[in-house]
Amino acid sequence: MLRTEPMAKIRVISIDASKAAVVAALHAIGAIDLRKSSLNLGDDRPADNAADLSDALIRVSGALQLLARQPVAKEGHRGAAALAREARAYAAIDETYSLGNERKSLNDDLKAVGYAERVAQLFSGSGINFSRMASDYVAYSAFETDKKGAQQFIRAAKGHKANGIEVKASRSGKKFAILVVHSKSVAVDELMKGVKANELDLTAKYLTGTCADVMRSMSARRKDDATRLRQIAERLAALSRKHYSRLFCMREMLEIELARAEASSMFKRTESTFIIEGWVQKRHVDMVLQKLSSVTNGRAYLEELHTDELAPTHTRRPKFLRPFDYLVGFYSLQRSDEIDPTWIFIISFPIFYGLMVTDVGYGIASLILATLITRRTDPDGLMYNAAKVWQLNSFAAMAFGVLSNQYFGFQLGYVPPFHFDWLQNTPELIAITVLFGVAQVILGLVIGIVNSYGHGHKKIAVARFTSILVVAFGTIAVAGAFFGAFNALIAEISGAIAVVSLLLTGVLSGSEATEITNLITHPLSYARLMGFGLGSVIIAFLIDMAFTPSLANGIPMFILFGVIFVLLHFLNMILSIFEGIVQGVRLNFVEFFSKFYLGNGIPFRPFGYKRVHTKE
Amino acid sequence: MAIDMNAAIAAIGAGVAIAGGAIGTGVAQSGIGSAGLGLIAEKKENLGIVLLFFVIPETLLIFGFVIAILVMLQAGLI
User: Is B66:B12 a contact under the CB 8 Å cutoff?
Assistant: First the structure.
């Protein structure tokens, strides 16, 4: 339970004639994470058809990008050669690409049309003719600016009139267009310094004739482009309806075949055999052997290797709890040779969240919010997985709400078993949360001792143990000497043990000795559970006291108070939820995990493919 | 109504404990927050880690809170 899945490194040797069958079988069962063998043998290379399959996959994927999504019907798997041939000869793909290219050039054309229209519109009042702007002697520059920019520019240009500069300004709504006719030796950019303006390209496509000519021809062109774009969209829609499903299945099959064709680049080879190495889950070794024996008629040899390499990490948990694995992995993936703390996280996180939110109403609302988020986010993303965990935590918030009798800050007329009141039991609650911290921090230390011992760091394991003794006996000594909790003899003996343990810790490991202060402060940090819980309850109580709507004050006041009441509870709820999640995660990752967690594990990525739309 | 000076001083002390923790947390979070936002702007995948670091100084406030509760308990205010 507190370990990741046991893994075994295996080596498979078989003859070349069986290679395709072995690769297909391994790919289909998806059980082995391939590793390149360290044997002193030649490298194998990808299958000869890998390049063809890659080309075919690119061709099909590109076409699918252009087609509209359609329902997909399952198809039977076809062989690599047939698939590559089919993709090459598929006429609808060529037509799709051709339509896609045409659509792209029409869209580019529409951009040019829009630009020409904009420039013509800006100069519409000036009477200029774009066709007459080619000259060997003078240059034409144009700018778009606002009223202030136009004034600044005209002022700046006045001083340069002697240099043969001529300026024409025309207005179109709030925009001003400036045409500058100047000798080629004059740098207009200098004049524009400090003026907010965009330069206009007078040599742009379609800027010929007068502004009216441009506007007229562009209007006709825009209409033609739009008509053709509509025709293309209709044709692509028809192609999508007819071919999308088939192409989608082809893509899945090509991805499978390409992965198989490229897999052999991870193999080693002799003259007539090939060697595969990789990690499989220990419980799958026999299954892999049976499968390989059946597809090679017994001509596959499998052995389990003994190695000091770090195995990849794989965890097996019920589906609804996997988001907790995601969160732990988001922090850092656990190593396969350390204790897996995910189950402890699964238990403690909802308790922390429940204590901090602690209201049945907020729990229900947070469940609804989390469910909405899961429906709108990517299942592989952080938001989705955090929301899934949040959903489960909402039940804990409701449970603690029932125990503390909190319903949007109101209390119902019942006393549940294990009842606690946030306002009346404050000292007890703070003690309980700190004790919870003591328990979790000590558990973290014990796990740290086991991990260190397992990794052969026996000195550190002993230092961690003695650091626990320092805190435990130090606490007894202080409690006895200063608060009279124990008699003087016990206090003195405890003090002596604490001092000896401290010295021993320092001798064994300097870093563990410096960690001792954390053993005192970290459990105190758990008091935040009580702090945030109490804060949330008090705010809810104050909202209810001040803004509970009552019909006795008239309907308008009832509505006004109702709105404020809902709004404030919503804000308090968001604050509680946010703190519940962030602080709950933080207590686990900072106070608990820091006592033992190594992380940086290697993810288990088996060679395989999850078929969705095709059948073997 | 007679004012119990001991209780009054204890209440002020509790307030100072909370305020000190809150100010310390605020100062620490301002630095972490600005650096964290810079990091998120570069790479938004770091949001979770930044959020985690951001809340770490809140421990100071919690210590202030614990001290305040202990002071008020000692003074018989709760």
Answer: no
| A520 or A379, greater pLDDT | A379
Provide the residue type at A13 as one letter. Answer: I
How long, in residues, is chain B? 78
In tens, the pLDDT along A542-600 reads 899 889 998 888 899 999 999 999 999 999 999 889 889 989 998 999 899 988 999 99
* DSSP of chain B: ----HHHHHHHHHHHHHHHHHHHHHHHHHHHHHHHHHHHHHH-GGGHHHHHHHHHTTHHHHHHHHHHHHHHHHHTT--
Instruction: Give chain B's contact residues with A (Cβ, < 8 Å).
Output: 47-48, 51-52, 55-56, 58-59, 61-63, 65-66, 69, 73, 78
Interchain proximity B62–A525, CB inside 8 Å: yes
Assess contact for A366 and A573: CB atoms under 8 A: yes
User: Given pLDDT bands bounded at 50, 70 and 90, which one contains residue A438?
Assistant: confident
Instruction: Check if A46-116+213-259 and A134-201 are the same fold.
Output: no
pLDDT for A592 equals 92
- Min mean pLDDT across A54-68, A150-164, A319-333, A352-366 is at A150-164
Output the pLDDT for position A162: 54
The model's pLDDT over A537-554, given as tens digits with 9 standing for 90+, comes to 988 988 998 899 988 888
Q: What's the topology of domain A1-44+267-316?
A: Alpha-Beta Plaits (3.30.70)
The CA distance from B46 to the nearest CA of chain A, in Å, is: 10
Classified by CATH at the fold level, domain A46-116+213-259 comes out as subunit c (vma5p) of the yeast v-atpase, domain 2 (1.20.1460)
Nearest to A531 among B52, B65, B73 (CB): B65
Mutation pick from A332, A421, A528 vs chain B, by most beta carbons of B within 10 Å, is A528
CA A359 from centre of chain: 30
Asked if A528 and B59 come within 8 Å (Cβ–Cβ), the reply is yes
Mark yes or no for CB contact B59/A330 under 8 Å: no
Question: Cβ of B73 and A427 within 8 Å?
Answer: yes
Residue among B53, B60, B69, B70 with most chain A CBs within 10 A, to mutate: B69
Which residues of chain B are within 8 Å of residue A441 when distances are taken between CB atoms?
Answer: none
Q: Quick one: average pLDDT of A193-217?
A: 89
